[in-house]
Amino acid sequence: MYLVQFDCDLFMVIRIKEEIGGDYLGSDSESSYRSDEGGFDYGPVSDWSYHTEGFTVYILDHKSKSWEEIEDLDNLIAFVSENYSRGVSLALDKCLKRNCIYFTDDAAEFWLSKSNCGGLDMGIYDNKSTQKWQLYDGDMCTSLYPSIWFIPHF
């Protein structure tokens, strides 16, 4: 879940992921999820994978103090990541795709694992048409912690 502020509005963006393969959080042997140094390693992730299916977006109704689901972001573009999320107006940058969510890979299970790595689940999601575009299509991955967005101040 990400909180995105834009002007006076607050949006809650929920990421929907599909996990493919083995049960990466459950195991008969808890010790298989510990690293040699005693820290949490998240275990053998090479048997499974994941990808973003989509997002559900809510806007906070300040009067009723409740979240309302929305499908059209209008001229808002949302950048979401583990480290930082922000909304940007399309009027300020015509190079961005309208009504879209730009997302980075935030699967800590992959980033922290010694046996695999993350950084492959990054893309653009059109909130209205539910179409996705992958930002990175290679097979190279990284063990560095999740990426962030470099967003200019308009």
Sequence of secondary-structure elements: EEEEEEEHEE
Outline type: globular
Which sequence of strands runs across the widest sheet? 6-5-7-8-9
Q: What portion of the residues fall into strands of 2 or more residues?
A: 35-45%
Domain KIB1-4 beta-propeller: 2-126
Organism: Saponaria officinalis (Common soapwort)
InterPro entries: F-box_BR-signaling, KIB1-4_b-propeller
Protein name: KIB1-4 beta-propeller domain-containing protein
Structure explained in plain terms:
There is one protein chain. 3% of the residues lie in helices and 37% in strands. It has one helix and nine strands; from the N terminus they run E-E-E-E-E-E-E-H-E-E. The longest helix has 4 residues. It is globular and about 45 Å long. It starts with a strand and ends in a 20-residue tail after the last strand. It is mainly β. It has a five-stranded mixed sheet with strand order 6-5-7-8-9, with no helix packed on it. It has a four-stranded antiparallel sheet with strand order 1-2-3-4, with no helix packed on it.
